[in-house]
Amino acid sequence: MGRRLTVSEASRVLGLSRTTLLAAEEAGLLTALRTPGGHRRYDPAELRRYAERAGAAPSWDDGAAPAPPQAPADAVPLAAAARAALRPLAQALEADSAGLYLLHAGEPRFTAAFGVPRWLAERLSAAPPPAPVAQALGTRRPCLFDPAAAAFPEPRSTGQGVAAALHRDGGALGVLFVVSRRDLLVPEVRVVEAFGDVVAMLVADERRIVELERRLEAIAALTRAP
Asked: Model-level pTM greater than 0.70?
């Protein structure tokens, strides 16, 4: 087994800030091991899996020393920003969970959630999008669904859920979902729709920031070149 990496080393390998790395861990997208003293350590193989799920091409071999940092995939900072935005929505609706699928290469991929345990977030990240998410994207209308029948977010889910497509500047961005143990009222479904507009703005703004950071990094790399 290769040497496990510290928080600073893992941040450098993935091209993330320490805050974003820890937020990804809190969102259940990345798992850290703990030393007897309580310090985080990251398995290079786990970092590779995370980078691949986020759409980034890892630039190191398992067990090898960290490679120079790469520009992060936009899904990485989006996961932290989206989870922070989902928290007040879930709490306001007294929902069990709220989550976000974003389009990557034309396919919706699980990006972030609030109220979803780490093991389930990892499962959703690896699985195809569930039927309610695909339906919401296809119809461009809110899709009410039975979580138990859809086995989403997981087979033991109960109550009622709603999935709403996110759009910005005429294009689809992804799907926002909320799952509650009780039936959702019509005004609550409209709240989810309206909140989806806010999330769409956040996603679009975050992607612009990521693109700007990439360009700045490219300029910095040119100035460092011999």
From this structure: no
